[in-house]
């Protein structure tokens, strides 16, 4: 995209199209790539008469190939923020149960493994092990739950000292993997998956309580397609009683934003573009075929974007299970007991997402490169394509070797990223996520820009403030 430039007049448009004094907008003009994509999507809707067929829009496991259309999309950041999933109805449940890719991918899984990456979770780790084991008939090794793999990722003191003791493990015989030094979420999950012996690998956070029959929903759904990743409805956990509360406030589905972030979204379809990453089930076969997590990523963040795209583009699918519930402890500022006891590097998260963009966005990576987080430290908003993604003048080292992705793409004959946009056109087109113009507001007197200060990911809160337009200190 061409260099973003401020308009000459020191004023900006507001919601009704009028100008307000004191602000100077940085403006990104609509360009050919956006026009092509919008025209293509509109034409596709018109071609079917009254629009895209409802059944194919909502429940099709496969989408039409968009390769005939224009290949570039350069519109800006989606405006939709967070949205809670609705309480599932009978119709939505049956819809999810019948949304099946029949044929060669059906199989008959019998067992599952639960992997729990735990970093400084203490008593929560013990309570989670008990909840998982007691939620499955026969418990650990009883026929369905093959094993629980707890990965102690650098906890101090170690979990086996006070919580997962030898006596405790006699009653709940978990497999315990200990990292003396934390390797991060992806490394912990990968280590756990390597030890898992079940047909299906289930990743849970180390502070959850699975609800009745969750395991059966996982096994039954994945049995329809071994290339399917399933995600439960994530509800709320009372950490005093370790019981589920407020089920009607559950979350499940996410969509992908242009800067490789993700937000909660409501949808009538059981299929979702992106999983949040913490709670999911995947067949061990599909985990191995897709290569697990990218070993070029580190720490936390971005792995869910990579896993979602490599699944959808390489012949898989991601399905929400509206009748499988897992209660989850959310971090709350007002309750210090819920605070995380490990460091999360925003630097790692952005670098990981940049690798996902390099690997999967194809020619659309230039869209992600327009974002300050991707242009990175020391780069102006107008010079963002000389930043992290394009490997020029960046002050931050990024592992740009994506050969491991290319091997997966070739072996699984993965589709282009344009297919993903077409597959979820209902969200991107009808959700209003394709604006023709995008403005960044600059206050004339100070020269500072209006900036969103909220965290990345699905966190619902955030605030705005005036800050340096160059974002020099965002990740320092």
Task: Explain what you see.
With 476 residues, the chain is of the alpha+beta class. It is globular. The strands form five sheets. Strands 5, 6, 7, 8, 9, 10, 11, 14 and 15 form a nine-stranded mixed sheet that branches. It has 16 helices and 18 strands. It is 29% helix and 19% strand. Helix 4 links the parallel strand 5 and strand 6. The protein has a domain of 249 residues: Spore Coat Polysaccharide Biosynthesis Protein SpsA, Chain A, CATH 3.90.550.10. The protein starts with a strand and ends in a 9-residue tail after the last strand. This is Galntl5 protein.
Which helices and strands, and how do they pair?
Elements: E1 5-6, E2 11-13, E3 19-21, E4 23-28, H1 32-47, H2 54-59, H3 90-98, E5 112-118, H4 123-134, E6 145-153, H5 159-162, H6 166-171, E7 175-179, H7 185-195, E8 200-203, E9 208-210, H8 214-223, E10 228-238, E11 243-245, E12 254-256, E13 262-264, E14 280-283, H9 284-290, H10 303-313, E15 317-328, H11 346-360, H12 365-368, H13 372-375, H14 403-412, H15 417-423, H16 425-428, E16 438-443, E17 449-452, E18 464-467
Parallel strand pairs: 5-6, 5-8, 6-7, 10-15
Antiparallel strand pairs: 1-4, 2-3, 4-16, 8-14, 9-15, 10-11, 10-14, 12-13, 17-18
Helix pairs in contact: 10-11
InterPro entries: Galactosyl_T_C (IPR027791), Glyco_trans_2-like (IPR001173), Nucleotide-diphossugar_trans (IPR029044)
Organism: Symbiodinium necroappetens
GO biological process, one term: protein O-linked glycosylation
């Amino acid at each position: 995209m061409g260099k973003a430039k401020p308009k000459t007049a020191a004023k900006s448009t507001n919601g009704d199209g009028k100008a307000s004094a004191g602000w100077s907008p940085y403006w990104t003009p609509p360009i050919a790539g956006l026009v092509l994509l919008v025209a293509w999507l509109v034409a596709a809707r018109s071609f079917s008469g009254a629009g895209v067929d409802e059944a194919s829009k909502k429940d099709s496991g496969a989408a039409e190939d968009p390769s005939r259309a224009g290949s570039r999309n350069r519109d800006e950041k989606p405006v939709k923020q967070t949205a809670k999933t609705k309480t599932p109805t009978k119709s939505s449940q049956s819809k999810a149960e019948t949304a099946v890719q029949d044929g060669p991918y059906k199989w008959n899984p019998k067992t599952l493994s639960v992997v729990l990456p735990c970093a400084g979770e203490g008593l929560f780790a013990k309570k989670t092990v008990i909840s998982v084991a007691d939620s499955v008939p026969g418990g650990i090794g009883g026929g369905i739950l093959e094993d629980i793999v707890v990965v102690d990722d650098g906890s101090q003191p170690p979990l086996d000292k006070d919580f997962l003791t030898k006596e405790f493990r006699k009653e709940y015989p978990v497999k315990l993997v200990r990292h003396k030094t934390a390797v991060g979420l992806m490394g912990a999950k990968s280590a756990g998956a390597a030890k898992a012996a079940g047909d299906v690998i289930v990743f849970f956070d180390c502070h959850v309580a699975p609800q009745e029959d969750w395991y059966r929903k996982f096994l039954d759904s994945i049995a329809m397609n071994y290339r399917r990743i399933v995600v439960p409805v994530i509800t709320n956990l009372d950490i005093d009683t370790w019981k589920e509360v407020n089920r009607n406030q559950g979350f499940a589905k996410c969509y992908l934003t242009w800067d490789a972030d993700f937000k909660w979204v409501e949808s009538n379809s059981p299929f979702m573009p992106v999983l949040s990453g913490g709670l999911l089930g995947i067949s061990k076969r599909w985990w191995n075929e897709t290569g697990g997590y990218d070993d070029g990523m580190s720490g936390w963040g971005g792995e869910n974007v990579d896993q979602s795209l490599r699944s959808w583009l390489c012949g898989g699918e991601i399905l929400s299970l509206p009748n499988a519930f897992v209660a989850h402890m959310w971090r709350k500022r007002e309750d210090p007991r819920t605070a995380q006891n490990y460091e999360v590097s925003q630097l790692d998260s952005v670098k990981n997402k940049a690798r996902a963009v390099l690997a999967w966005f194809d020619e659309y990576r230039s869209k992600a490169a327009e974002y300050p987080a991707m242009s990175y430290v020391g780069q102006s908003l107008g010079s963002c394509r000389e930043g992290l993604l394009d490997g020029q003048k960046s002050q931050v080292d990024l592992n740009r070797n994506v050969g491991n992705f290319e091997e997966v793409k070739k072996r699984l004959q993965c589709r282009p990223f344009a297919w993903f946009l077409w597959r979820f056109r209902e969200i991107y087109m009808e959700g209003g996520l394709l604006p023709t113009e995008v403005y960044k507001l600059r206050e004339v007197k100070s020269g500072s820009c209006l900036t969103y200060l909220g965290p990345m990911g699905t966190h619902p809160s955030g605030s705005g403030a005036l800050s340096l337009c160059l974002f020099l200190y965002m990740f320092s």
